[in-house]
Amino acid sequence: xxxxxxxxxxxxxxxxxxxxxxxxxNGCVAVTLLHLSETxxxxxxxxxxxxxxSVILGTGDFKNIAKPQLEYLKKKGxxxxxxxxxxxxxxxxxxxCGKKVGVNHFIVGQYxxxxxxxxxxxxxxxxxxxxxxxxxxSHGVSVAHRSQGSTGQCQDPGRVFKGKKMAGHLGSSRVTxxxxxxxxxxxxxxxxxxxxxxxxxxxSSYVFVRDAVKKPLHKDVPFPVGLLLxxxxxNASGLVS
Length: 241
What we know:
- By secondary structure, the protein is mainly beta.
- The chain folds into two domains: 5-120 and 173-233, Elongation Factor Tu (Ef-tu), domain 3, CATH 2.40.30.10; 122-170, no CATH class.
- It is built from four helices and twelve strands; from the N terminus they run αβββαβαββββαββββ.
- The strands form three sheets. The chain has a six-stranded antiparallel beta barrel with strand order 1-2-11-10-7-12. It has a four-stranded antiparallel sheet with strand order 5-4-3-6.
């Protein structure tokens, strides 16, 4: 399947701030809360110069930022010590550097794909890592009940094949959870609530959120990005598409 939806609009870097529940008429639904820090359009990369089209965004305000990056942000007119990341786009029309991106980039009822790194669990055995059943509890097994058992064959081929499920490092791998539905959006606090609690990563970790590639794009989403209007205009949640 071609990843068409993910190239129509930008993806955003958000913070996983925890889990809660939302009550509806038909019951209670578990949700994960994702927070969007101050995010700016820092720069654009164009096809003729870079070989592809993308938008460079900056989010948050960090203490330890390299001096070259600070000078780069200063040159672009951004005072925040942003964490920079990149999101590809097919069409760069309507993109203006220095503009602030808002949580109104998403709407209720839309489906998202969320990417992050899973929680690291160190070195794990085969029962925890690959869901092995373990060895028998009696009849000859001695001090090896959680082991994997034999891994090789007889004289032919006489070796262990590559890719054999064994004990090893578990977690800290890039994981994408698809088709997560937005149930609620708090525009004032820049928080969205997505259905379920299976967002990868730990609390306060960053997650990359983009339009779902296996679901049709909602007809009401702003293109190519939802921007915040100037706060001096008295409206900080307007759509610019």
